[in-house]
Amino acid sequence: MSKTGPWEFAKDLAISLLGQDFMVAISLLGAFAIYFIWKTKWNIPRKSILTVVVAAITLVLAYTAWIYQNSKQPPPAASEDLTKVPVSIDCTASSSTTVMPADGVLYEVSLAKYTGNADYLAQRFGPSGTEVQLSNKLQVIRRCHVINHGPIPIFNAELTLHLMFRGVIRDSENPSTTRSGDIMFETDWTIHPPTINVGQPGFVFYIVNSSQEFVFVTIGEFMTFKRPNSNDRHTTQLMQFPGFAMDFSPQ
């Protein structure tokens, strides 16, 4: 064995270890061991025992480092399931006056005792930023905000509103005070939000009571939708506050 051989090998090994290419380091150690055995025919001189010990220790350390390095690697990313889209909805109290959105289209659900096959999501059009009066000034309405937390837009969405209409009971001593009475009418409405893009601003619609009864509204647990370039319908569970319900005073 030439005197420069081990040093050249050590240099290559150090470069491999510093570069965290542990498989290359192991290959170099293996090649060195085979070369050493072939060269000495197992007649290992005393002065080479230390070299063999150092090589063996280095091999063990390199293999241990390689195992550790691979254990720190993140698992391969699973292919994304585009049929499972997290969608949230949040409905908050709002004044009856709002402004027309930037695109000039405002979406509204007007509650009434009606059932049938219809899209109950109406549209109003107007110049962006103009004031819109959705109900009388004393009535509280709801502003519902749907957000698509998935990776791509969704289309042709369908979600269900459950409506419960209750009669009005007036206080005999104070007729201006009212409370809800018996259930008079109950039904489910399906609304169809158009494209819901990813993230903000999402899709916004308003719910207004145009009836003479108290109305209690809950939103269905699930929503169906379509993906781009696909006619298949998919279902996702809406993220909303558990047991959330909205109540509306008479018009």
State the main characteristics:
elongated; alpha+beta; 3 helices; 2 domains; 251 residues
Distance between the termini: 100 Å
In total, how many beta strands? Answer: 12
Mean pLDDT across all residues, rounded? 77
Q: How do the helices and strands follow one another from N- to C-terminus?
A: HHHEEEEEEEEEEEE
- Strand content range: 35-45%
Please describe the biggest sheet, giving its number of strands, its sense, and whether it closes into a barrel.
10 strands, mixed
Computed Rg: 36 Å
Helix content: 10-25%
Count of helices?
Answer: 3
Query: How many individual domains?
Result: 2
Shape estimate: elongated
Provide the low-confidence segments as ranges. Answer: 76-80
Structural class: alpha+beta
Write the layout of secondary structure elements.
Elements: H1 4-18, H2 22-40, H3 49-72, E1 87-94, E2 97-99, E3 105-111, E4 122-125, E5 131-133, E6 141-148, E7 155-170, E8 178-191, E9 203-209, E10 214-226, E11 233-239, E12 246-248
Parallel strand pairs: 1-11, 3-9
Antiparallel strand pairs: 1-6, 2-5, 3-4, 6-9, 7-8, 7-10, 10-11, 10-12
Helix pairs in contact: 1-2, 2-3
